[in-house]
Amino acid sequence: MTQALFKTLALRPELLSTLKELGYGSMTPIQAQSLPETLQGRDLIAQAKTGSGKTAAFALGVLNKLQVDRFRVQTLVLCPTRELADQVATEVRKLARGIHNIKVLTLCGGQPFGPQIGSLEHGAHIVVGTPGRILEHLTKGNLTLKDVHQLVLDEADRMLDMGFQPALDAIVEQAPTQRQTLLFSATYPPEIDAIAARYLSNPVSVTVAETHDSSSIEQRYYHCDNNDARFTALETLLLAEEPTSAMVFATTKREVQQICDDLRNRDFSVASLHGDLEQKQRDQTLIQFANKSVTILIATDVAARGLDIDNVDLVINYQLAHDTDVHVHRVGRTGRAGAMGLACSLFTDKDRIKIEKLEDLNGEPITAATLPRPSSSTPARPQMATLLIDGGKKDKLRPGDIVGALTKDGTLSANQIGKIHVTATKAFVAVELKLGKTALNKLTEGRLKGRNFRARLLRS
């Protein structure tokens, strides 16, 4: 089937030029179905999974309509979490780089309030933020939506899951009625219909099912006699498969933390992700998992939604998802970008109805597999170690400065350094595990930008 090309769209020349520079030739299915409607000014309901290219699907429509010479907030993008808001803002800035003087501002909870007020006073064209913090700025009069002509609700289902419905209602009430509203959602619970009826005007609906190639994912199912047997099965699978990066899904925050604690007591490299964690903990956990200094991430579905994490080679459903949409979403975390992935699901006799639904989804009966024999009784160590530096963008610290400090005397080479993530006040750098202490000594004993910065190794 011929793929739709970006150059066939009525996009401003600067955007087409940037897309060409980025190597974006063909559109993903969600982009091909939604962008023509968005460019015509239609309201849109789009159902698509994480990793489908949905951010570019709405960002290109937003940027195409933006009037740069009007220094007003013209677009508001609402996201359920700070992590997703940061990802969206980064993607928008990347696509906008050919259009001069566009200001994109993120407003999220878990960040100091004062600097955000200062940023708002300087103005912005596009605001990306979480509902709670956006409403707070609106209530205090720091932000006005009177010039907004495009409203985007990203991961709308998750915003409802997290209890943001009242905040969404209050925000939308302050937006002009004459606007374009784009709603993106990974699943489509009944509540989405309700808010779509209130927020959107004659929307067109677009649905893209799976965005990953299911042939690249091997699915296995393991029967457990009881809940105690689940943990034994989990430990066995982790020891047998020796993943470099694995996600384990559990139902409740309490279960997630208990599994994490139990695995850590058995020397696994593991971290948890759930709603009770402070933003600082969430950020640190995600950075360590993405840079391969934590091997296993235990998460609830709500906490893991909207995360753009590549190269997960194993997914384990500690409990089966309540519905098949969520199951597909979990499994789709692996087997991306042409890589092969493995998804293992644990179930008991009480899960009979869920198994029947999955059989209907897969179009074939599910047969319980036999647990593999562990190749070792010792958990594999992570590939990398993460160092935290107490300095960031506000200190003019850049990734190149960190690489230079680590490699200047030849003790470390550039290919022994992994991902570097620099925030406003902190910097995180991954190095090969065996070189963690060496790298720490170089950073603490040497100088960065002519200054001494404190640094420490994060626990894996």
Written description of the protein model:
The protein has 460 residues and is α/β, with parallel strands linked by helices. The protein folds into 3 domains: 6-207, 3-Layer(aba) Sandwich (Rossmann fold), CATH 3.40.50.300; 214-362, P-loop containing nucleotide triphosphate hydrolases (Rossmann fold, 3-Layer(aba) Sandwich); 384-457, Alpha-Beta Plaits (2-Layer Sandwich), CATH 3.30.70. It is built from 17 helices and 17 strands. The strands form 3 sheets. A 7-stranded parallel beta sheet has the order 3-4-2-5-6-1-7, sandwiched between helices. α14 (324-331) links the parallel β12 and β13. α3 crosses α4. The chain starts with 12 loop residues before the first helix and ends with a strand. The mean pLDDT is 90.
Short description:
With 460 residues, the chain is of the alpha/beta class.
Query: How many discrete domains?
Result: 3
> How is the largest sheet built, in terms of strand order?
3-4-2-5-6-1-7
Count of DSSP-assigned helices: 17
User: What is the oligomer described by this structure?
Assistant: single chain
Tell me the name of the CATH class of the largest domain: Alpha Beta
Structural class of the helices, strands and pairings? alpha/beta
Give me the CATH architecture of the largest domain, please: 3-Layer(aba) Sandwich
Runs in which pLDDT lies below 50 for 5 or more consecutive residues are: none
CATH superfamily heading of the largest domain = P-loop containing nucleotide triphosphate hydrolases
GO molecular function, one term: hydrolase activity
Domain Helicase ATP-binding: 35-206
Domain DEAD-box RNA helicase Q: 4-32
Motif (Q motif): 4-32
